[in-house]
Amino acid sequence: MRIVDPRSFTGETAWQALDIANMDGVTVRLHWTDQPYRWHVNDGQEVFVVLAGTVQMHHRSGETESVRRMGPGDICHCAVGDEHRAVPEGPAHILVIEREGSV
Fold first, then answer.
1. What is the pTM of this model?
2. Which residues pair with 26 in a beta bridge?
3. How far is it, in rounded angstroms, from Cα 5 to Cα 23?
4. What percent of the chain stands above pLDDT 90?
């Protein structure tokens, strides 16, 4: 058994990840960041859980862009084809569950 304290993980670069598990091709990773991620579309589903900090989750649908402010405990599910990006408001710890090798 392994216990992970997300507060003890701080990356040297934005979006650095600590691999927690790989279950049949699905990865569970702890990310630390203090910088925005680029706009992207995942080739599989993604679950994004804010553990610490505040993150603005940006989503595009056609010409429309929406932003949702997320705090600790908030969960975002991105379906295949959802264009999105995460913009932290200062340092944040985020748990990401997605297909192995997804962007």
1. 0.92
2. 23, 99
3. 20
4. 88
